[in-house]
Specification:
globular; two-stranded antiparallel ribbon; eight-stranded parallel β-sheet
């Protein structure tokens, strides 16, 4: 309905109904609120940590990057981000070629430290020097973004002095904190698969795919709800994955499942343009996802963390659903 037609309709109603009735009429009563499909859509960007990652359970070092690039293209993911540990790369080796291939496919790269240390186990000075080594490798390369993601999402734990010293050091270097908001502990699912493979266990690949996809979709849905409870508005979420065999095998299924739940896949550039990613939460423990920390800071009640990130929960699901432990037992 056009604005002109709306005013004509209101005028007609005013002529036909008593004044005390029309005085209470609103536009929402004449024109119902937008349908659910018109509500701002759920948006999510995809990122991969630990590039280049060590061997997985199923693919060799050359297969994984090529499969991941093809799967992202097939899923219509125009831009993901790969957070790189250059300390694992030698000049001209296959890992460097893989990073170049990700960029050539339209993806971007950023800093995940040189050797993947925990801030909780390091001094601020040593940690920043580690970041500087990574920046020296990264900053003149195509596809580079001035983003830093903390290994283990460890921003210093309970040591606020260390947390603030590194935050200040990042700002001095022109680096932004590359927060994540959606985390399904894919690294743990991967490690369980590696352990099972090494032990000669029979792995149900269909069940593994379903567990991987379901866990990350549930994490996205949980975070969407937590964001609404915390901020009162939707934000472009950032999903944390790792450069794993499971990502190469199942990212297409995951992207489709997200879309089936109403999620739009956006670029990392678009996600980090939202002002929420400039926040610096002040919480007793500096670790975890941005939304978790903001919920803590805002004293949001109810569940503030995704339950499957508890390793005992994830391991139990893997054993029962992927290894089928306990089936056929009395």
């Amino acid at each position: 309905m056009t604005v002109r037609a709306l005013f004509l309709l209101l005028a007609l109603i005013a002529l036909l109904l008593p004044e005390q009735v029309t005085r209470r009429l609103t536009v929402d009563q004449v024109m119902p609120p937008a349908a659910a499909s018109e509500v701002p859509k759920k948006r999510i960007a995809i990122s991969f940590d630990d590039a280049p990652r060590g061997p997985g359970a199923f693919l060799n070092a050359d297969e994984r990057p090529a499969m991941l690039i093809a799967a992202l293209k097939g899923a219509g993911v125009d831009q993901a981000a790969f957070f790189v540990n250059p300390g694992r790369i030698a000049s001209g080796d296959r890992h460097e070629r893989a990073i170049d291939a990700y960029v050539a496919a339209g993806h971007v790269i950023a800093d995940h430290s040189f050797t993947h240390p925990r801030l909780s186990g390091s001094s601020a000075e040593t940690y920043l020097a580690n970041i500087d080594r990574a920046e020296a490798w990264l900053k003149d390369r195509p596809g580079y973004r001035p983003w830093f993601r903390y290994p283990y999402l460890d921003e210093g734990g309970r040591n606020k002095g260390k947390r603030d010293a590194v935050r200040a050091g990042l700002a001095e270097r022109g680096l932004s904190d590359a927060y994540v908001t959606v985390d399904g502990s894919d690294w743990h699912i991967e490690q369980l698969a590696i352990d099972a493979s090494r032990a000669g266990r029979l792995i149900d690949m269909g069940a593994l795919r379903d567990l991987y996809v379901e866990t990350h979709v549930l994490s996205a849905e949980f975070t969407y709800d937590l964001t609404q409870r915390t901020l009162g508005r939707p934000i472009p979420q950032v999903m944390l994955l790792h450069e794993t065999d499971l990502a190469a095998l199942f990212i297409g299924d995951l992207v489709q499942a997200l879309r089936d739940k109403g999620w739009d896949i956006v670029t990392m550039d678009a996600a980090y343009a939202d002002p929420v990613y400039a926040e610096k939460p002040d919480t007793p423990m500096a670790a975890g996802t941005l939304v978790e920390m903001l919920a803590w800071e805002h004293k949001v009640t109810g569940m503030r963390w995704f339950d499957r990130n508890e390793q005992a929960v994830g391991a139990r699901l893997f054993r029962t659903r992927v290894l089928h432990e306990g089936e056929g037992q009395e």
